[in-house]
Automatic annotation (TrEMBL):
Membrane topology, record value: Single-pass type II membrane protein
SUPFAM superfamilies in alphabetical order: P-loop containing nucleoside triphosphate hydrolases
Keyword entries, A-Z: Carbohydrate metabolism, Glycoprotein, Golgi apparatus, Membrane, Signal-anchor, Transferase, Transmembrane, Transmembrane helix
Organism per entry: Smutsornis africanus
Gene Ontology cellular-component annotations: Golgi membrane
Name of the protein: Carbohydrate sulfotransferase
UniProt enzyme class: transferase
């Protein structure tokens, strides 16, 4: 579909037959990250005008899913895992292990193509940061966030997410 295929072309711009043909011919990889960690990252990158994490979370909750930024919108609404059968789902924090496996499956030399990842350090840092920022939230905000991300928490293996409690 070179006539319409460009990096910025959205899948929804194709008809159903074209979509099915394309998705059947590609290896589909989905990169996922704990929704609470995505919120922290968006806050740290200054993606809101809120002075505190708690007020940022409240802004996110007030925006509702329909108006949410892609930086914190639930993954299920962005990636449609119930409609698209992904070949691989790669979780943040396990990139080195997962990408190495993916490259080997594609017949590529995994070691030479991967940058250095410090997955263990990243997981520990985000665990500590998540606990600190989670403690700033009210019980109501925690419950609302769990509800906001309920489909992500059901669809992906975020067993250590603070939002699953």
């Amino acid at each position: 579909y070179p006539r319409r295929h460009a990096p910025e072309t959205k899948l929804s711009e194709f008809n159903l037959t074209e979509i099915e043909t394309m998705l059947g011919s590609y290896t589909k990889v989905l990169f996922v990250r704990d929704p609470f960690q995505r919120l922290i990252s968006a806050f740290m990158q200054g993606m809101g005008s809120s002075p505190s994490f708690s007020s940022f979370v409240q802004d996110v909750l007030d925006s509702r899913q329909h108006y949410a930024s892609e930086a914190w919108k639930p993954l299920v609404s962005l990636c449609r895992p119930c409609l698209v059968q992904y070949d691989y789902v790669v979780a943040f924090g396990y990139l080195r292990q997962e990408l190495g496996h993916l490259l080997r499956r594609a017949g590529l030399p995994a070691g030479s193509l991967l940058p250095e990842f410090s997955d263990t350090q990243a997981r520990w840092t985000y665990s500590w940061l998540s606990e600190q920022m989670f403690s700033e939230l009210s019980l109501q905000q925690k419950q609302q966030l769990s509800h906001f991300y309920r489909w992500d928490l059901s669809a992906f293996p975020f067993s250590s997410s603070l939002l699953t409690d």
